[in-house]
Amino acid sequence: MIEHVSQETKLQYERTAEEVRKTLRLVGIPLVDRTGNSGAHVYIDTFLDAGSAGGSEGVYVEWLSSAELMAKVDDCAARGDYENPVLPFADVVLDAMRMMLRDVLEGAGWRTSLDDVGVHEEGLRVFGRSGPVPGLD
């Protein structure tokens, strides 16, 4: 049986996710869902994962690259063209944007982690704020 966090915890994650979105909107980072647009995707995981150290439930932010770039990556993979320079370029883009998201959020007082917690290996985990930031709150 799959277990979820309590309703109270889920509501707290939803509030935190909305505050994270506000922070990202403030600096002009586009927010997206998983519809093919590029930008920051903020989401919550409510599944309790006993197999993950510390659990994987919480608030996450992922960078989604453009559909055009991802189509090029998929095309290379489908052809077995693993030497194509688009592949390391896509990795560099993802790493750079993850670091940018981390730096922006930590600059606004958010506590984050890039630790791989299973299904969120490309996500930046957001735990909460260390306190109000003058001028942002």
Summarize the structure in short:
The chain has 137 residues and is an alpha+beta fold. Helices cover 40% and strands 18% of the residues. The protein has 3 helices and 4 strands; from the N terminus they run H-E-E-H-H-E-E.
Describe the structure.
It is a single chain. With 137 residues, this protein is an alpha+beta fold. The protein contains three helices and four strands. The chain has a four-stranded antiparallel beta sheet, with helices on one face. The model has no long low-confidence stretch (mean pLDDT 86).
Please specify the SSE layout and strand pairing.
Layout: H1 7-26, E1 39-45, E2 58-64, H2 67-79, H3 86-107, E3 110-113, E4 124-129
Strand order of the largest sheet: 1-2-4-3
The overall average pLDDT, rounded, is 86
Please compute the radius of gyration using only Cα atoms: 16 Å
Count of DSSP-assigned helices: 3
**Beta-strand residue fraction:** 15-25%
Provide the helix percentage. Answer: 40-55%
Shape: globular
User: Total number of β-strand segments?
Assistant: 4
Poorly predicted regions are none
Query: SSE string, helix = H, strand = E?
Result: HEEHHEE
Please name the defining characteristics of this protein.
3 helices, about 140 residues, single chain
